[in-house]
Amino acid sequence: MMKFSNExxxxxxxxxxINPSIVFNPGSVVRTISPQKTVMAAATISxxxxxxxxxxxxxxxxxxLSLFDKPEVSFGEEKFTIKGGKSEVNYTYTSESxxxxxxxxxxxxxxxxATVSVTWQDIDSVLRATGVLQLPEVAFSSDGSTIKxxxxxxxxxxxxxxxxxVAEDVSCSPFNMIIKTDNLKLVPTDYEVxxxxxxMAHFKSDVVQYWIxxxxx
Length: 217
Prior knowledge:
Blueprint: H1 6-18, E1 22-24, E2 27-33, E3 39-49, E4 53-55, H2 58-65, E5 72-75, E6 79-84, E7 87-92, E8 114-118, H3 120-132, E9 137-142, E10 147-152, E11 162-167, E12 175-180, E13 191-196, E14 200-204, E15 208-213
């Protein structure tokens, strides 16, 4: 039996916003990928999972865990057993074939143009600006010496724009990389972001990491 930590529950809630389903694999790494395969995420958790288990509706599993004060979870061959006090739930696994699952390994970022440390405060301010200004995208851009993170609409030249400088006195080739706001469902923390014009941004933190498709350049 194991108890999921609050940190693990937080990661799983975040992963459920990327893909409603998940496959737990043996070990301490949980992974997910969006059905469109535009976002992949991985996190190392404090618990060790014993066996493979498919969950079709991760939010439903998390809601089931919330029925208990301090739930203990056992991974069986065909189902979870969730216990707390005098109560118990049997929760049947879903076939892995019904779930869009990520590869087992991390992805290497191809020929990155830049790596920049970005605080959650800056990421959050830009994401909030996309909501306030009704902008569908964010952009990482550079003139070769400064890197900015912006809320943008790349398809409308007259659209409003909100930007924040995230790095100065850098040396890189100029770039402009667009990411759909819908793909930026991140655990709130600071990130090291690696950017490649070959179509990928890698957000890495001590908690979790994401590989996110760059839509246009």
